[in-house]
Amino acid sequence: xxxxxxxxxxxxxxxxxxxxxxxxxxxxxxxxxxxxxxxxxxxxxxxxxxxxxxxxxxxxxxxxxxxxxxxxxxxxxxxxxxxxxxxxxxxxxxxxxxxxxxxxxxxxxxxxxxxxxxxxxxxxxxxxxxxxxxxxxxxxxxxxxxxxxxxxxxxxxxxxxxxxxxxxxxxxxxxxxxxxxxxxxxxxxxxxxxxxxxxxxxxxxxxxxxxxxxxxxxxxxxxxxxxxxxxxxxxxxxxxxxxxxxxxxxxxxxxxxxxxxxxxxxxxxxxxxxxxxxxxxxxxxxxxxxxxxxxxxxxxxxxxxxxxxxxxxxxxxxxxxxxxxxxxxxxxxxxxxxxxxxxxxxxxxxxxxxxxxxxxxxxxxxxxxxxx
Length: 372
Ligand code: V47
What we know:
Layout: H1 9-18, H2 25-33, H3 37-52, E1 55-59, E2 61-64, H4 93-101, E3 110-113, H5 123-136, E4 141-144, H6 147-157, H7 161-170, E5 173-175, H8 186-192, H9 199-211, E6 216-222, H10 228-245, E7 248-255, H11 271-284, E8 290-291, H12 295-306, E9 313-316, H13 337-346, E10 350-354, H14 365-371
Parallel strand pairs: 1-9, 1-10, 2-3, 3-4, 4-5, 6-7, 7-8
Helix pairs in contact: 2-10, 2-11, 3-11, 4-5, 6-7, 6-9, 11-12
Binding site for S-adenosyl-L-methionine: 76, 182
GO molecular function, one term: iron ion binding
Domain Radical SAM core: 56-289
């Protein structure tokens, strides 16, 4: 028996997907505006299962936010501080070392390292930071510095973008996280983050990173002042770059948290919208392999449900998430591997622990024992 849609428009979209035709701008709007959440989820789940079957991925990772001092001061950000402000911090390289050593007994395979644009830090700091991580965690992938940071590093180093990227790569940079894109739109940029690079530059930096052989993720921050039209255009711009380079690995919809920001009057995102963003991304981003349900932002329970709405990845174990928690997230700051696997299994999927490039990692003794 096939599904009966409540929303008639979904039949046409289903037909397009079945015949391998690409969804367009109007389809994106129709999906977002559809009253048929289950219908949209069903379409996304079909595509997701064709690509990944029962597998649901996660990575054993550690976050390091090396500084919250930032000259950009985006209006949606609760993490950033001015240098003399209460709560401002910058890790010395010894502190970075200590944080890595504090978890040295754990099988961490990815270090996710991002921070503010802090004028007190010279380019050498970033190279030394990569050097320390490489020394202490030679097997792990260093996923570090958003396109925003990479652009900034090119400015402070005085090097061309190409040379900056090559230097960081030589120092150990292995992959690029997807932050900093927000919603690629001039109106939103002018209103919420005018000091940050704009969408053209974000895409340009990403293109250079891809051409230098660095895989990257992409994000969209939703649930603030953006319209549905602006979301769909954002997805299409990402898809166009991906057509040219193939350099993106995962897309991560990021649910806005407003506490301690200048937008604190805005309500939290709804469960329906969180699931729609996952499902629409799966359907519109037909050239992205992976869609992440970021449990930190939408909570463990909804992230589990999102696995049936198009997501194939729950990101990672993390432990010390700061950016969303400073903006009021109520999710835990980290998950154990056992908890992650329990969430995935009880959602009806098979947990696959992965490295940064979605290669399944050999289960260690502990996991083999857990699997029986
Ligand atoms: O760029 C900032 C967003 C991003 C808030 O690539 C906020 O694997 C919600 O990009 N409420 C950083 N979001 C996080 C990020 C990320 C996370 C997990 C995995 C990956 C990956 C990337 O968080 C920022 C910004 O878009 N953000 N403030 C806030 N108040």
